């Protein structure tokens, strides 16, 4: 449970920083996403998911998760 809370906290920190420091960038990103087809958005989502899993696996392999 603690790792899930840590992960959620880190996601919220990153998301909050993006909105606080570059709100116009978020609008540009959303506009770019609207131009993509649903299939391409799905591929972007799977790519982000895969990258996230790889980063968590790498952190665990390096001993960051205890």
Would you summarize the structure shown here?
The protein is an all-alpha fold and 66 residues long. 86% of the residues lie in helices and 0% in strands.
Write the layout of secondary structure elements.
Layout: H1 2-21, H2 23-35, H3 38-61
Which terms would index this structure?
single chain; 66 residues; mainly alpha
Average pLDDT metric = 90
Shape field: flat
Main sheet specs: none
Structure class: mainly alpha
How helical, in percent, are the residues? over 70%
- Total DSSP helices: 3
Radius of gyration: 15 Å
Instruction: Tell me the total number of β-strands.
Output: 0
C-alpha termini separation: 14 Å
Q: What percentage of the residues does DSSP assign to strands (E)? A: under 5%
User: What is the element string, with H for helices and E for strands?
Assistant: HHH
Taking pLDDT < 50 over at least 5 consecutive residues as the criterion, the unreliable ranges are: none
Provide an overview of this structure.
The structure is a single chain. By secondary structure, this protein is an all-alpha fold. It is 86% helix and 0% strand. The protein contains 3 helices and no strands. It has helices at residues 2-21, 23-35, 38-61. The chain starts with a helix and ends in a 5-residue tail after the last helix. 0% of the residues are buried. The mean pLDDT is 90.
